[in-house]
Specification:
Largest sheet: 8 strands, mixed
CATH architecture of the largest domain: 2-Layer Sandwich
CATH class of the largest domain: Alpha Beta
CATH superfamily of the largest domain: ATPase, nucleotide binding domain
Number of strands: 14
Strand content: 15-25%
Bound molecules: adenosine-5'-diphosphate
CATH topology of the largest domain: Nucleotidyltransferase, domain 5
Number of domains: 2
Strand order of the largest sheet: 5-4-3-2-1-6-8-7
Distance between the termini: 10 Å
Radius of gyration: 21 Å
Helix content: 25-40%
Order of helices and strands: EEEEEHEEHHEHHHEEEHHHHHEHHHEEH
């Protein structure tokens, strides 16, 4: 049994490892950092301890194991090493949990094998997550390690929302259905929004708009997710930084048959060269707002397409929920881009959605309401904190397992 109160949260991507060490007694971030360009030239480790200056080192990482060992060494240099008795668990972000993993899960050989079996439905994400888990288990074989899945919060989607209307036998054979992503963020933000309204999650219906580089919307009824915009993969739904979001699937056939593009080329086009980037050459909303302010027509089109898609989803999810208590903006764009929030909510007074221009313009890192007190629907900004949520879930699981 561990008496530790700290959780190390690891988010291993294809060429990076992000980490945070969190003390669950007070939620304090004891250290955070990022190892990037793993397995590529130009590797770099940025480490920020709570009580000290940020340290940055340029150094190559041959693989994830080398990166994680460097992270462990940085933590040890601050007296926060992986061998510390204070460490209660390591929480791993895992992108795809398929239909089996609908809750945080203690990692065993069998669980790891199952996550590996899901690689065909998440070829870009799960392999890196698996490597992170393997390396962390090698470094601390005795420590509980917990997988927290991006898909888990969406496991409650009703069957009619999770199914694509295609031949059921074909869909089932290839595990084709809508899984949804960013679940840890949607869960954290929908609960924090309820708290902001002074209510329990079970008492409120909220629409969460997670607008980062990737972007997704969810409809959460009484704390339960009933609809979300991403699907089998994170490509479906909203216009994103570099992803198209919804397109007619016929576009794919057309580009292949008539345009002569290969499937891999179309995959790269829709995932990496579309969205805001495809429409105007920039995927950073700050740059788009600046260019639009200078009268740039391409940037204005990208902004309008982004907002239009969001409004379509907002209207659809309003109908799905029937009654909406809050519309909540989160992640890089949602938390910072007041013009996006204003444009998404413009002209929706009939639905009870109003933004107060002055409240909306305030810059703050705190959860806040930006609608006037009289509005039927609260419009809120809630900074997301996926790492804290992963740490909480991992810590709770380890303690339940011990009871
Ligand atoms: P990720 O999906 O990579 O975690 P984030 O949630 O950090 O992304 O969001 C990153 C995006 O947020 C940036 O690409 C940028 O478009 C947007 N962003 C960040 N700060 C601002 C800002 N002050 N104004 C407008 N957009 C911003």
């Amino acid at each position: 049994m561990s008496a530790g109160t700290r959780v190390l949260v690891l988010n291993a991507g294809s060429s990076s490892v992000k980490y945070q060490l969190i003390d669950m007694l007070d939620g304090a971030r004891l250290a955070a950092g990022l190892a990037e360009r793993v397995g590529e030239p130009g590797g770099r480790l940025v480490h920020t301890p709570r009580d000290g200056a940020r340290r940055e080192a340029l150094r190559p990482f041959e693989d994830h194991a080398a990166a994680l060992e460097a992270v462990a060494a940085e933590l040890a240099a601050d007296g926060l090493g992986l061998d510390s008795p204070e460490l209660a668990a390591i929480g791993h972000r895992v992108v795809h949990g398929g239909r089996r993993f609908t809750a945080p899960t203690l990692i065993t050989d069998e669980v790891l094998a199952e996550v590996r079996r899901l690689v065909p439905v998440a070829p870009l994400h799960n392999p890196a997550n698996i490597t992170g888990i393997e390396v962390a288990r090698r470094l601390r074989p005795d420590l509980p390690q917990v997988a927290v899945f991006d898909t888990a919060f969406h496991a409650t989607l009703p069957e009619y929302a999770a199914r694509y209307a295609i031949d059921r036998a074909v869909a089932d054979e290839h595990r084709v259905r809508r899984y949804g992503f960013h679940g840890t963020s949607h869960q954290y933000v929908s609960r924090a929004a309820a708290a902001l309204l002074g209510k329990e999650p079970a008492e409120v219906n909220v629409i969460v708009l997670h607008l980062g580089n990737g972007a997704s919307a969810s409809a959460v009824a009484g704390g339960v997710c009933v609809e979300t915009s991403m699907g089998l993969t994170p490509l479906e739904g909203l216009v994103m930084g570099t992803r198209s979001g919804d397109v007619d699937p016929g576009v794919v056939f057309h580009l292949h048959r008539v345009g002569g593009l290969t499937i891999d080329e179309i995959d790269a086009l829709l995932n990496r060269r579309s969205g805001l980037l495809g429409l105007c050459g920039d995927n950073d909303m700050r740059e788009i707002l600046r260019r639009r302010g200078e009268g740039d027509a391409d940037a204005a089109l990208a902004f309008d397409a982004y907002v239009h898609r969001l409004r379509k989803y907002l209207g659809a999810y309003y109908a799905v929920l029937g009654r909406v208590d809050a519309v909540v903006f989160t992640a890089g764009v949602g938390e910072n881009a007041a013009p996006v929030r204003e444009a998404v909510c413009a002209g929706l007074e009939g639905l009870g959605i109003v933004v107060d221009t002055e409240l909306n313009a305030v810059r703050s890192g705190d959860p806040r309401i930006v609608s006037p007190a009289y509005a039927r629907v609260a419009v809120a900004v809630v900074p997301t904190d996926e790492e804290l949520e992963i740490a909480r879930q991992a810590f709770a699981l380890v303690h339940t397992a011990e009871d």
